[in-house]
Amino acid sequence: MHILASTLVSALGSGKSAHIDAFLAGRSGLSSQTLFQQKLPEIKTYLGEVDNLETVQLPESLVSFDCRNNQLAWLALQADGFKQKVDRLVARFGSHRIGLVVGTSTSGIAATEEMFREELQPEDYDYQKTQQMDSLAQFCCQALHIQGPSFVISTACSSSAKVFAVAQRWLNAGLVDAVVVGGVDTLCLTTVHGFNSLGLVSQNVCKPLDESRDGINIGEAGGFALLAAENYFDETSESSVQVVGVGESSDAYHISTPHPEGQGAQLAMKAAMKQANISIDEIGYMNLHGTATPSNDLSEVSGVSHLISADTQAWMSSTKGFTGHTLGAAGITEVIFCQWTLEEQIVPANLNLESFDPLLASKLTQSKLNVPIETQRLNAEQPPIHYAMSNSFGFGGNNATVILKRGALK
Amino acid sequence: MKANILSVGLTAPGLVNFESFKALMLSGQEPNVSEPLEKYSPAFLPANERRRTTATIKLALKTAEEALTNYKEQFPEADLQIPVLFVCKDGDTLISARMCQAVSEVEPMISPTQFHNSVHNAPAGYWMIGQENQAPASAISVGQYAIANGLLEAVLQSQSEMKPVLVVTYDLPLDDLMPVNTTQKGQLPFAFSLILDASGVNQSGHQKSKRPELSLSLTQAGADQQLDNPYQGLPAAEGYPLLQAIALFQEKSEEMTFPLNEHNFVKLALS
């Protein structure tokens, strides 16, 4: 599948250039002093908040969908001219020939939180258009005038990686000519308190892969990609990147703890590589799920260690130190990071890494995996990155891996 | 698109399983919708996990288990590591309401079990653990358009994975604790499951006779069906006419249409 267009809004900013700038400057979007923290006096942590999100106005026709999650969706649809590109394809193929599949873990549950907290009037609360799990798909279909097949995937933190598998199935079956995939998850009290109850929230800025890592920082993000079949040629497409492999699996191990050897993660990576018809040695960049919990990073790196060889020479980083863990939006966020890595030949840093966990390092000694402390802009002497891989894992032992390929250079 | 229907499961008030529904249909009787849901405990789960399951999770697991048990009986040699798709509009609203209530308290307290059970894919997670199944598992929400979008996804996944797929469509009324009007709370729970095979692997070597084949196609022409459905209300219950057609299947069924969205439909037929 071709990526014809994409868009992303996170704590780093809105659109591609804001994110690339933050990567190159090593500037994190995480803060311990966000507006949302005023609602959370009990919990000391860092959050990845999108500035001024609460002030986003939805258009009159969509105002009944008003909630933080759909506000972020709307913001993301406007960024980098994404909506206009979708509009053009809708006009070209017809609204019933475009599908939409998006991921979220908590939808607009913040609206129901506000009801219980008496911050929202009953007449301003519409469950079906806010918290109901398919609200994001309803909202986006109406905003984009899409009338093909559509639904929300909600498999916790793998949600918006799995959307790529659905898009493949629809396009392969010829049901649609293009698919909008994406994911949006926004800060809400239930997730911060919930992760905190599991002892998974760090009081400090999160440190993926670090010896002293002690949990996640929760972030919010909204991102979308417009996909078309491989044989579709769009002269206006700005990207030459293709989705060439998607792998899905289950741990069948524990409801909230990953398998210690990353068994399910291995299955997902293998399935994606099989579909892409490549070996792990062809992958130039791995964007890890890398949440910075002790168990996730150990499980994931163990999983990777079972797949690599002495010839594996790739960059590897977790970008959670930039954005925080954006949960149901983590998949789309990091697949888009991989897209930009391939387009710009820039490897995002594994931010906040001070002392690489020796246990993790010991698992990788046989290979030449390179974890960048600073964002790398590859020069002409360095081997170019042709394939990038993104991992996303969620509660319930739900795993997805997406592999992208750089097309012919312009 | 075509898929063989290899197995069926059904749970609703007055319906303990698909076989009892079939017996009712064949004798021309109506289910008694005023009966409560049958009690159930997922015996296939380790005790620790079993204890943590909620009413919502149990409804999904019971209905999944019925289809898998039938499947195992019919195909003792079959690979049971099959992908699973759970389709549900709201998830567990008792848990989400309790969590939202908890964060309105002066000292917010959410339990770890409550939190991990709150994810939409909790039934999928328990199912894969209980079945020791590492195949892909998904959990989707399609609001009122569950049947068309859910069946389409299951059939396409079976085609691409070259394996049968278990699809479980389940809905419960919104919990009383939810701050919504009462009309959304009085509806009847309903769950059904199908093992669909679009891979072709199970099609040879078995008599075609009693096993219906499902055909699906997209259409822009269709209409909301006004059929007699004692469970009408929640999206999963919209599958009632399909279940009726499977129960009464002889050689060929009438065509049915299910809305894909406001303007488009999926046409279904059994043959």
Shape of chain B: globular
Strand order of the biggest β-sheet of chain B: 3-2-4-5-1-6-8-7
What's the arrangement of strands in the largest beta sheet of chain A? Answer: 2-1-9-7-5-6
CATH fold call of chain B? Peroxisomal Thiolase, Chain A, domain 1
CATH architecture of chain B: 3-Layer(aba) Sandwich
Q: What level of helicity do the residues of chain B show?
A: 25-40%
Order of helices and strands of chain B: EHHHEHHHEHEEEHEE
Low-confidence stretches of chain A: none
Oligomer: heterodimer
Shape of chain A: globular
Largest interface between protein chains, with number of residues from each side: A-B, 64 and 70 residues
Overall residue-averaged pLDDT value of chain B: 92
Instruction: Name the helicity range of chain A.
Output: 25-40%
Q: Helix segment count of chain A?
A: 12
* pLDDT averaged over residues of chain A: 96
Category from helices, strands and their pairing of chain B: alpha+beta
Structure summarized in a few sentences:
The complex is a heterodimer of chains A (410) and B (271). Helices cover 30% and strands 20% of the residues of chain A.
Describe it.
The complex is a heterodimer of chains A (410) and B (271). Chain A has 410 residues and is of the alpha/beta class. Chain A has two domains: 2-228, Peroxisomal Thiolase, Chain A, domain 1, CATH 3.40.47.10; 246-406, Thiolase/Chalcone synthase (Peroxisomal Thiolase, Chain A, domain 1). In chain A, 30% of the residues lie in helices and 20% in strands. Chain A has helices spanning 16-25, 68-78, 82-93, 109-116, 135-144, 159-172, 189-197, 263-276, 294-305, 320-323, 330-344, 358-363; strands at 2-10, 13-14, 30-31, 47-48, 98-103, 150-153, 178-185, 218-219, 221-228, 241-250, 283-287, 315-317, 346-347, 376-377, 387-394, 398-406. In chain A, the strands form four sheets. Chain A has a six-stranded mixed β-sheet with strand order 2-1-9-7-5-6, sandwiched between helices. In chain A, a hairpin with a 3-residue loop joins strand 15 (387-394) and strand 16 (398-406). In chain A, helix 2 packs parallel to helix 5 (135-144), helix 6 crosses helix 11 and helix 8 packs across helix 9. Chain B is an alpha+beta fold and 271 residues long. Chain B has one domain (2-211): Peroxisomal Thiolase, Chain A, domain 1 (3-Layer(aba) Sandwich). Chain B contains eight helices and eight strands, in the order βαααβαααβαβββαββ. Chain B has an eight-stranded mixed β-sheet with strand order 3-2-4-5-1-6-8-7, sandwiched between helices. In chain B, strand 7 and strand 8 form a beta hairpin. In chain B, helix 1 (18-26) packs across helix 8 and helix 3 (55-74) packs across helix 6 (122-131). The radius of gyration of chain B is 18 Å and the shape is globular. At the A-B interface, helix 4, helix 5, strand 6, helix 6 and helix 7 of A face helix 4, helix 5, helix 6, strand 3 and helix 7 of B.
